[in-house]
TrEMBL record:
<feature type="binding site">
    <location>
        <position position="145"/>
    </location>
    <ligand>
        <name>Fe cation</name>
    </ligand>
</feature>
<dbReference type="Pfam" id="PF01327">
    <property type="entry name" value="Pep_deformylase"/>
</dbReference>
<dbReference type="InterPro" id="IPR023635">
    <property type="entry name" value="Peptide_deformylase"/>
</dbReference>
<feature type="binding site">
    <location>
        <position position="98"/>
    </location>
    <ligand>
        <name>Fe cation</name>
    </ligand>
</feature>
<comment type="function">
    <text>Removes the formyl group from the N-terminal Met of newly synthesized proteins. Requires at least a dipeptide for an efficient rate of reaction. N-terminal L-methionine is a prerequisite for activity but the enzyme has broad specificity at other positions.</text>
</comment>
<feature type="active site">
    <location>
        <position position="142"/>
    </location>
</feature>
<keyword id="KW-0378">Hydrolase</keyword>
<keyword id="KW-0408">Iron</keyword>
<dbReference type="GO" id="GO:0042586">
    <property type="term" value="F:peptide deformylase activity"/>
</dbReference>
<protein>
    <recommendedName>
        <fullName>Peptide deformylase</fullName>
        <ecNumber>3.5.1.88</ecNumber>
    </recommendedName>
</protein>
<keyword id="KW-0648">Protein biosynthesis</keyword>
<keyword id="KW-0479">Metal-binding</keyword>
<dbReference type="InterPro" id="IPR036821">
    <property type="entry name" value="Peptide_deformylase_sf"/>
</dbReference>
<comment type="similarity">
    <text>Belongs to the polypeptide deformylase family.</text>
</comment>
<dbReference type="GO" id="GO:0006412">
    <property type="term" value="P:translation"/>
</dbReference>
<feature type="binding site">
    <location>
        <position position="141"/>
    </location>
    <ligand>
        <name>Fe cation</name>
    </ligand>
</feature>
<dbReference type="GO" id="GO:0046872">
    <property type="term" value="F:metal ion binding"/>
</dbReference>
Length: 200
């Protein structure tokens, strides 16, 4: 059986910068089901090899459709035509990583909570309503992929690129240097910084 990880497009592939087309209601159900299964297999395989990874967007394996597959707490989810319909004013800075460039992590700023509406494979319409930060930052990363936006496009101007395994070392270095721009939660009225760290 072919290695699912081999199908993941790497940074620099021009397809990762393309805007994906919505999935039409006329799409063949068997085709969508097969593509969804491919995405889910890839998430499971990536996580087994690297020890992290919760989701992948269809364009990351060359399927130029607005579709996302996620594995959260052991449950599989496939989101068809996901749309962010609400975002909090509060934002947080977090380490962002990506299956298309798993060797590095960068700092990005994300909405602290979002609502994302989508369709399931069986046609049901559902939503993640005002999701917590862990899920919200993941959804925003994957939605970006559908619009050809990569984590490096969102990278904070003062942020450094670090090896994925050195994120905690970089956090500790910022704490020791008392960097006022480091590890900060951008929230209206927040008086103290808060450390946020998440993995895809």
């Amino acid at each position: 059986m072919n290695d699912p990880i081999a199908s993941i497009l790497r940074f620099g592939d021009p397809r990762l910068k393309e805007v994906c087309e919505p999935v039409s209601r006329q799409s063949i159900e068997t085709e969508l089901a097969a593509e969804a299964e491919q995405l889910l297999r890839t998430v499971h395989a990536f996580r087994a090899r690297y020890g992290w990874g919760r989701a992948i967007a269809a364009p990351q394996v060359g399927i130029m459709k607005r579709m996302i597959a996620m594995v959260l707490d052991g449950r599989e989810h496939v989101l068809i035509n996901p749309t962010m319909t609400w975002a909090s004013e509060a934002r947080a800075e977090v380490w962002d990583d990506c299956m298309s460039l798993p060797e590095i992590a960068v700092r990005v700023q994300r909405h602290y909570s979002v609502t994302v509406r989508f369709r399931r494979l069986d046609g049901r319409e559902e939503a993640f309503e005002k999701a917590d930060f862990s899920l919200s930052e993941l959804l925003q990363h994957e939605l970006d992929h559908l619009d050809g936006i990569l984590m490096t496009d969102r990278m904070r101007p003062t942020s450094s690129i670090v090896a994925h395994e050195n994120r905690e070392l970089a956090d500790m270095a910022k704490v020791r240097s008392k960097d006022p721009n480091g590890l900060e939660m951008f929230k209206a009225g927040a008086s103290r910084p808060k450390v946020e760290r998440a993995m895809l």
